[in-house]
Specification:
Elements lengths: L15 H11 L3 E2 L2 E2 L1 H9 L13 H16 L3 H14 L4 H12 L7 H9 L4 E6 L5 E14 L2 E8 L16 E5 L3 E6 L12 E7 L3 H4 L6 E7 L2 E8 L2 H11 L3 E5 L1 H20 L1
Helix pairs in contact: 3-4, 4-5, 8-9
Length: 284
């Protein structure tokens, strides 16, 4: 039996019928070979078609979604990251290279997140082996005796104490040669291994910092600060540092309001960075 249909009479301004037909043709809502305004109205009523101004993400919003995807992956939520990537593809105004990159990422199985496994092994103090691919594409193997997740400059990193030292050819910090700071998305595999967990944690050195000017009051204590006291007009901070790279980036941001007092190898590295910066400006 044919489905019973209702009829309605519409009063529309001149030219509206042609506009409805154009929309129906765009969404392939046809009656035979002709666009169907009545089919278009039915699709809208049944919620099969979105009407109004299309919801899209501008470039700054797309960048924010990308950053959220990275944080979700690093935090152990690959499924939620995939949902955001799909939203970005559907609604983002993306340039072709970025769109193709995201299509490739969404088209493959969900990127395996290693954080849950790292957290598990760390919780039970179980040593493990990491196969890691560095920025140059070289695969490295690390036997991990201690691991912790740290947040630096808008993303999470895996900091480890490992047996291997051969990959470090020259370092101003031999006392930290067993420490590594790894990106979670470059981990290739993790397997458990035998041996003892390192109860002492990462190797570290004490760095003495002096803060001046506005930083005397503005400085906020860090979790790894050993001491923080105001002496006259100078804030004196002693911090336990496992990776001088991040400390130096922080110190340079403070400019003249922060000075590394000791140890000398950290102080020399900051001085070297400042000289290189000065040479860049002088060459211009």
């Amino acid at each position: 039996m044919a489905r019973k249909k209702e009829t309605i009479t519409l009063s529309i301004p001149p030219g509206t019928k042609e506009k409805l037909e154009a929309i129906a043709r765009r969404f392939q809502i046809m009656w035979g070979k002709s666009p169907s305004p009545s089919g278009l109205i039915t699709a809208i009523a049944e919620g099969e078609l979105e009407v109004g101004e299309p919801f899209t993400l501008n470039s700054s919003q797309a960048i924010a979604v990308q950053q959220a995807v990275k944080l979700l992956k690093d935090s152990g939520y690959p499924g939620e990251a995939q949902v955001l990537l799909s939203l970005l593809l559907a609604r983002g105004n993306l340039e072709t290279p970025l769109r193709q990159s995201i299509l490739q990422e969404v088209g493959t199985p969900e990127t395996q997140t290693w954080r849950a496994l790292v957290d598990h092994y760390s919780g039970i103090k179980q040593p493990f082996i990491i196969l890691y691919r560095n920025a140059t594409g070289t695969d490295l193997e690390f036997t991990v005796r201690y691991a912790q997740i740290s947040f630096h400059e808008k993303r999470y990193y895996l900091e480890i104490w490992c047996d291997e030292t051969e990959d470090i050819k020259d370092t101003p910090f031999p006392e930290l040669i067993h420490n590594r700071c790894l990106r979670l998305d470059r981990i290739q595999s993790i397997v458990r291994t035998q041996g003892q967990w390192r109860e002492e944690g990462l190797d570290s050195l004490k760095v003495y910092l002096h803060f001046f000017g506005g930083m005397v009051k503005a400085y906020e204590s860090r979790e790894n600060d050993i001491s923080n006291e105001l002496v006259g007009e100078v804030r004196q901070v002693v911090r336990r540092v496992s990776n001088p790279f991040w400390l130096i980036r922080e110190v340079l941001r403070y400019g003249k309001d922060c000075v590394v007092v000791s140890p000398e190898n950290v102080r020399q590295l900051v001085r070297k960075e400042l000289k290189l910066m000065s040479q860049k400006y002088d060459s211009d």
